[in-house]
Amino acid sequence: MKKRHGIFLAFLLLPSFSAAFPLFYSSRKQALYKSKIAEIEKNFASSECEKVKSNVNNYFNLKPPSEFRKKAYLYLGRCYEKMGYSDKALSVYKIAAALYPHEKEFHKKLADMYFDAGFFKKSSEIYLRLIQEYTCGWEITMKLALCYLNLGFYKKAEKRLSQAAELNGYKDRDLLKNYVQCLINLGKYGKALNMANRIPPPDKYVSLARVYIHKGDFRSALEEVEKGEKQFPHKKDLLLYEMLLNFFNEKYYKAYAKAGNFLEKYPFSEAAMTIKIWSGYKIGRKREAQQTFLLLQKKGKGWLKRLSERLNLQER
Length: 316
Prior knowledge:
Layout: H1 2-13, H2 15-45, H3 49-61, H4 70-82, H5 86-99, H6 104-116, H7 120-133, H8 138-151, H9 154-168, H10 173-185, H11 189-196, H12 203-215, H13 218-231, H14 236-248, H15 252-265, H16 270-282, H17 286-299, H18 303-311
Helix pairs in contact: 2-3, 2-4, 3-4, 4-5, 5-6, 6-7, 7-8, 8-9, 9-10, 10-11, 10-12, 11-12, 12-13, 13-14, 14-15, 14-16, 15-16, 16-17, 17-18
């Protein structure tokens, strides 16, 4: 018996055998870690976030090596996002970004969370680092541009929006709309008009109108929204711009009628009520305008309601 034990110990001491034994042990552990991650992934796919949380905690108790923890952090963070726990998701991504400084996904998630929370300076720093260190698509470049746009760095925003548009092939509607707004902010109206013409209708007409409004050319702005309204008679923002621009072009009867039609579809629209009140006073329909004002005092939520409360109008 002792001889057998000695032979067995001798085999253990052989370099090839002693190297293979830990590998055998490690492969069993790896299989366990992979099965646990597969279970967490399945829970996430089924939107069972409570199970994800529980299974991730149990998984971390097994103390898996660093490379086996990455996916667990990702699924846990995404579950917190799904559940609306933004602070917890942010904490998870902060930890993961610190543990895995070269993992692009965690840093992108962290930047997106800061962006959604309105922390544009923090998110811009992370997006910029991602662009400098990795090959990034147009979405991250656009997000960086939007950070700059919100921070008031319009020249920086223009540069990044131009890059994003090139990468995207000028196809994304929201990207182009933001590009137009940035050019408006810079006073580059000619370039803004060219960019607005790249936007697919009906948004094209709204963007063109916005450029003309900032130029002070209300007639051309109205012409654009009227073109759009003929093609897309139910597009809400076109109808709103048409009401407003009829008023600015001193077509008060038309503005009043358009506002009334709009309110039939969208009762208590504060913008339409405002136009109806202004145009109503202009065409002598003061009583109707006052009634609209009083209705807004009761039902409205925005600035005109607050104004009416201050004036404390009484029906005569």
